[in-house]
UniProtKB/TrEMBL annotation, chain A:
It comes from Pseudomonas graminis. It comes from the Bacteria. Residues 71-247 form the AttH domain. PROSITE patterns: PROKAR_LIPOPROTEIN. InterPro entries: AttH-like_dom_sf, AttH_dom. This is Iron ABC transporter permease. It holds the Pfam family Lipocalin_9. SUPFAM superfamilies: AttH-like.
Automatic annotation (TrEMBL), chain B:
InterPro entries: ABC3_permease_C, MacB_PCD, Membrane_comp_ABC_pdt. It is a multi-pass membrane protein. Its main location: membrane. Residues 467-631 form the MacB-like periplasmic core domain. The chain crosses the membrane at residues 247-268, 288-315, 342-365, 393-410, 416-443, 464-482, 690-713, 745-770, 790-811. It comes from Pseudomonas graminis. This is ABC transporter permease. Pfam families: FtsX, MacB_PCD.
Length: 372, 826
């Protein structure tokens, strides 16, 4: 789900261009109920479209940007192994943030007056190394963007580009990014259908009704090469795409989250997250994805999630070993960071890295932790 | 302590009785300090402005990618490079004039803050996200330096309008902005400058550029990496300008110190008796010296304070002219408001202290060696004068030798100044020797008693007046030299401008795509006798910025492009047919090439060797200028399009042509320049350039006048002893006054007569040495007799004014005072 940019603003005032909107719209936080009442009113040019239940997803159109929403991302993680069995993680993210429209203006604006700001994050992780990089760009001049036909998402020389000849642009994807000490080129292929998260793609973030539209492709198979510090590795393994868009910031009360995407060895997949609250219990939810792509929503009562061990990361106590239990699915596993120091030391810092699974199930996955 | 107190009090009482001497010391220190610190304030202000201009983005001078001819290029190249992994950020530069301030052209700099490396400082300030978003979100922000904002008479938050009716984003004052620059988001800049989707440069992060990556193949030839930004060159280009100012300031400093030296020397002479008494009363030699040093220090501090205050005032008064010169000559923007550090004020006081001790050193030395029991002998100094003169003659001779060797072997600006300084020094020191000889010669020929007394007494006055006369000589020579150089330059420049600016109209296409249709259309117009396209490439030759121009083979150039030197045969034919070039005089000197030599130009496909077939004057251009044949140029730079068309057209057809041109092509007004405009502009630049020089020059003459006045005044008191016997012999006070005036005038006239050849020699130095070394062009030496006469009359008037008050005092001397001198002798 990864609504990462939003709460960070209220949590630690780590401001980046993209996150300005959080401040600009902070007024919305106070009156979420009223907001709902006005949702989707297109005639008020300065407001954004709102997330409401019951949306029908249309593909491939929904792969493209949703200009009326404030924030949106294309988020890829991959758990890779080389021929020697060495494990790696790769992350590739493109964020779109729309600034408020100037009074009386319609649309996004042409050229430099385009209201979209784009941000890219990329990282590679091995057992003892972790490198991250970021990119920023303004919309309107083709430095960054997402196009539908042919499908491509890019910022500078980082790209997520369809190579597919079929109707499904996500069937075959070329993914690449680079930083000062790393680069990677991966080919992502998927045969199974997309997965709508939450209630038919309506993914709730709090009891107050904060929500996003959220779908995933958890069944990618990645193949390609990673270069770290001048050494190249031929790698392959499962990859996961998240697509999410929304206009609502999270509540002041929410301090951060812990998000898991898990590839279980038997072909099933699990997505779960908990939003931590200043007072009271975290908001916990998830999705069980069967090997055939069918899903079941997991409620808080279905999941037992607890940190088991912490590591000192950049002066913070980060939980890098977790216990995850889903009794209804006979899941009782330990989830442990491949590299506990997978700190994304960027303008918006957070922890993101590959994890290994042991216990009732074996497997790999990705963990993201913010607000620590 | 009480001893020290009473000693100091006794010493200081002298100044109370001789306020004129007191004020002469102060005036000397004041003049010396104020001119030097004033000039230094101007220079440091200018240099700070250059630094700000080159450090506006990222703090360091940037490495940039530009098109080979410096023209704007498509923003698509930015995207292409970004998508190839180059961390470039686009910028657009242009000029606008605001309706609110139509006389000042401002530089618009459009930048893109998001693609700049994270934490890049803009005008010395790191932006947080809120500020970045504010910067480009409509209505945006225009950053401007507080000085420029004040100079334009605008205030923060205002949205001024350009002369083409475009509205600026609201103004915001930022302390570290370079003067004359409007910094805004590139989106607003493109609209404001009517350059949609165009950029003029791509900024590269330093660490990336240092690895010198190769451009993507498809961009090779379209963009070039510039090692140092244009702004960075400003320091080098303007170096000689500032050095000239420094030299003028230093000259005034020396003249001021002459005054101090004279006044302190006299004060010591008059206090010999006092010093002897103090010593006899038991004040130790050491205590006396300390008191004298403290006294001098206090005087220096007072003079220094007055000096830096008026230096500040002087600099503020001259700054607009200096700023205009720098803008006109080099395109350099200098803030119009002085902004000086504490360090400047302190260094001004330091200079005054140093100057005072330099000027007073010999007097202090003499006081230290004062024999305790020697009789007070006011004539002792005068008796040793002939020994002094001989010594001075030797120093003058050695200086002259240094000057001659500097003239013969000098090849740098520094040696040029050594030449000038030693020339002036030798002339100044030689002056009393020469005057002494002249008076001796005249004395031998004089038969009348009064005449003999007149000349002998003149010679007697020489030691006391010599320093003032030296100052007069230097000031007069400097004025003649600078005046002759300026007038000569004006004449040469105007003549050259007439010849060179022979096309009636100059049109710059708005963008490369416009060039071809524009050329075709222009050549079809009636009453147009020639369309001369120019292709332009910006280069660096041996680190010196130069512009390479491609021209077609046309008879126009033969007629209107005078060559200083050319290859044998038809140089223009050789330029058209062979791999040859012509270059400007200053560039030829920088590269140390002459006709027949080979010059290698850095073309994209490797060095391009060309033979020099002509050298031409290019006055006033700080950059190098190279001409090659356009066809040859385009073989090496195939993507170039003409960036200017020079039009030979019947002047009557111009208004009609412009009307149709505006209808058919969108071209901004500032891209079309007619000859009259260009000439007027060039002349104006020229005049403004020398305005500051002329002002400083008149000041040196003033300083000399003051020096003379003070010398005459200080010696008028001691003159009574010489004049009283004549009065007793029956010469009336009126006659005495006239005799005195005649003496002063005789000395002044002799000095001025000597100043004329010295001034002309100085003019030659400026024309043939300093100009060549500083700017790269040599000027023919021209003598302007009327100017000499005018200056001489002015100097005579200064002498008259300087001697008026002392003479008036002499005239009003009571007979009792004259009688008292005899009483003293007893």
């Amino acid at each position: 789900m990864k609504v990462k940019a939003l709460p960070l603003i209220t949590v630690r005032l780590q401001i980046v261009a993209l996150l300005m909107l959080g401040l600009l719209l902070s007024a919305c936080d106070d009156k979420p109920e009223e907001e709902k009442g006005f949702a989707g009113l297109a005639d008020d040019a300065s407001s954004y479209a709102q997330v409401t239940p019951g949306k029908r997803f249309e593909f491939p159109d929904d792969h493209g940007p949703h200009a009326d929403f404030r924030i949106e991302w294309w988020y890829v993680t991959a758990n890779l192994k080389d021929a020697d069995g060495q494990s790696f993680g790769v992350q590739w993210t493109l964020f779109r943030n729309a600034l408020p429209r100037a009074k009386g203006l319609q649309g996004d604006g042409a050229g430099w007056s385009n209201r979209n700001l784009w941000m890219g994050h990329a990282a590679v992780t091995s057992q003892d190394e972790h490198f991250a990089a970021e990119r920023y760009a303004r919309g309107g001049v083709q430095q960054a963007g997402v196009t539908l036909a042919p499908f491509a998402a890019w910022i500078d020389d980082w790209s997520f580009t369809s190579q597919s000849a079929s109707d499904d642009p996500l069937a075959d994807i070329q993914l690449q990014a680079s930083g000062p000490q790393f680069n990677y080129r991966l080919r992502l292929k998927a045969t199974k259908p997309l997965v709508l998260q939450g209630k038919q793609g309506f993914s709730q973030k709090s009891e107050q009704g904060q929500a996003s539209y959220y779908y995933s492709q958890p069944f990618f198979q990645a193949d390609g090469s990673i270069e770290i510090d001048g050494k190249t590795y031929q790698v392959s393994g499962p990859a996961w795409l998240d697509r999410e868009w929304s206009s609502q910031p999270l509540t002041d009360n929410q301090t951060g989250w812990d998000w898991f995407s898990l590839h279980l060895g038997d072909g099933a997949e699990v997505m779960l997250y908990r939003m931590r609250q200043k007072d009271g219990e975290p908001y916990l939810t998830g999705t069980w994805i069967n090997a055939d792509g069918s899903t079941e929503q997991l409620a808080a009562a279905d999941i037992a999630l607890a940190p088991e061990d912490t590591t000192d990361v950049e002066g913070r106590d980060m939980p890098t070993r977790w216990s995850v239990k889903i009794p209804s699915k006979a899941v009782d596993i330990a989830v442990e960071a491949l590299n506990p120091q997978a700190w994304m030391n960027l303008q918006i810092p957070y922890w993101e890295g590959p994890v290994t699974i042991s216990g009732s199930h074996e497997g790999v996955g990705y963990l993201e932790m913010t607000g620590y | 302590m009480p001893v020290f107190y009473w000693t100091l009090k006794a010493l200081l009482s002298h100044w109370r009785r001789h306020p004129v001497q007191f004020f002469s010391v102060l005036t000397g220190l004041w003049l010396a300090t104020s001119l030097l610190t004033g000039v230094q304030a101007l220079n440091s202000q200018a240099r700070e402005s250059y630094a700000k201009a080159s450090q506006m983005i990222g703090g360091d001078p940037q490495k940039i990618l530009v098109s080979p001819n410096g023209a704007n290029f498509s923003q698509d190249l930015f995207v292409t490079l970004r998508r190839a992994g180059w961390p470039v950020s686009p910028a657009l530069r242009g000029r606008v004039t605001l309706k609110e301030a139509p006389e000042q052209r401002l530089t618009v700099l459009g930048i893109e803050p998001v693609s700049l490396p994270v934490n890049t400082a803009l005008a010395g300030q790191s932006l947080d996200t809120a500020q970045i978003v504010d910067f480009f979100t409509p209505p945006g922000t225009t950053w401007i330096s507080p000085q420029t904002l004040a100079a334009l008479g605008l205030h923060e938050g205002q949205q001024p309008v350009t002369d083409s009716g475009k509205v600026l984003p609201p103004l915001r004052a930022k302390t570290d902005m370079a003067p004359g620059v409007l910094l805004m988001d590139i989106g607003f800049a493109q609209q404001l400058l009517n350059q949609p989707d165009q950029i003029s440069r791509l900024v590269l992060p330093k660490d990336f550029a240092d690895n010198a990556p190769a451009l993507p193949a498809e961009l090779n030839g379209e963009l070039v990496l510039r090692k140092s930004g244009e702004d960075n060159d400003l320091g080098r280009l303007t170096e000689s300008f500032h050095l000239n100012l420094d030299a003028l300031g230093f000259l005034s400093f020396v003249v001021g110190l002459f005054i101090v030296h004279a006044a302190i020397g006299l004060a010591l002479e008059q206090r010999r008796g006092l010093l002897r008494n103090l010593r006899a009363c038991g004040v130790s030699a050491r205590g006396l010296m300390v008191s004298l040093v403290v006294e001098l220090g206090v005087l220096a501090l007072l003079g220094g304070i007055a000096g830096v205050i008026s230096g500040y005032w002087l600099a503020s008064a001259l700054l607009p002219d200096v700023a205009a010169s720098l803008r006109g000559l080099y395109g350099a923007e200098v803030a119009g408001h002085l902004n000086l550090s504490v360090w400047w004020w302190l260094s001004g006081l330091g200079v005054s202290l140093l100057g005072a001790f330099l000027a007073g050193a010999s007097s202090l030395l003499r006081a230290a060696r004062l024999p305790l029991l020697a009789l007070a002998n006011a004539q002792a100094w005068h008796e040793t004068h002939s020994k002094w003169l001989r010594r001075q003659g030797w120093v003058a001779g050695i200086s002259a030798l240094i000057a001659i060797s500097a003239a013969l072997f000098g090849d740098s600006l520094a040696l040029g100044f050594v030449l000038m300084a030693s020339l002036l020094l030798s002339a100044a020191l030689g002056l009393p020797v020469l005057l002494n000889l002249l008076l001796d010669a005249l004395l031998g020929r004089s038969r009348s008693v009064l005449g003999q007394w007149f000349l002998a007494d003149c010679r007697q006055q020489l030691p006391a007046l010599s320093l003032a006369l030296m100052a007069l000589l230097l000031a007069m020579a400097a004025n003649i030299g600078a005046g002759s150089m300026t007038s000569g330059f004006r004449q040469t420049f105007t003549h050259w401008l007439e010849q060179r600016l022979s096309a009636e109209l100059y049109i710059n296409p708005q963008n490369p795509a416009q060039a071809a249709p524009l050329q075709q259309w222009l050549s079809q117009q009636p009453l147009t006798s020639a369309v001369l396209p120019n292709w332009q490439v910006s280069l660096q030759l041996k680190g010196w910025p130069a512009e390479l121009y491609g021209v077609i083979d046309h008879p126009h150039y033969r007629q209107h492009w005078p060559l200083l030197e050319s290859a044998s045969g038809d140089a223009w034919k050789q330029l058209a047919q062979e791999d040859t070039l012509m270059l400007s005089e200053q560039l030829a000197r920088r590269l140390d090439v002459s006709v027949g030599d080979e010059v290698k130009l850095p073309a994209p496909d490797g060095p391009w060797p060309l033979r020099v077939v002509g050298i031409y004057a290019d006055y006033g251009n700080p950059k190098g200028h190279v001409l090659v044949n356009a066809e040859h140029l385009l073989k090496h730079w195939p993507q170039l399009t003409p960036n200017r068309f020079n039009l030979r057209i019947d002047p009557r057809a111009i208004p009609q042509l412009l009307r149709v041109l505006h209808n058919k092509f969108t071209i901004d007004d500032n891209r079309i320049v007619d000859q009259i405009q260009l000439k007027a502009w060039s002349q104006q630049v020229f005049e403004r350039t020398f305005a500051a020089t002329a002002a400083l020059n008149s000041l040196t003459l003033m300083v000399a006048g003051v020096a003379l006045f003070i010398s005459l005044l200080t010696q008028s008191q001691s003159r009574l002893a010489q004049l009283a016997p004549l009065w007793a012999l029956g010469v009336t006070r009126q006659q005495l006054m006239l005799l005195n005036l005649a003496q002063t005038w005789l000395l002044a006239v002799l000095t001025l007569v000597l100043a004329i050849p010295l001034g002309l020699l100085l003019a030659w130095c400026l024309d043939a040495v300093i100009n060549v070394q500083a700017f790269g062009w040599r000027l023919p030496l021209q003598v302007f007799p009327m100017q000499l006469v005018r200056l001489t009359l002015l100097a005579m008037l200064a002498t008259l004014l300087a001697s008026a008050w002392p003479l008036y005092r002499l005239y009003r001397t009571r007979p009792a005072d004259l009688l008292r001198t005899f009483a003293n002798e007893g």
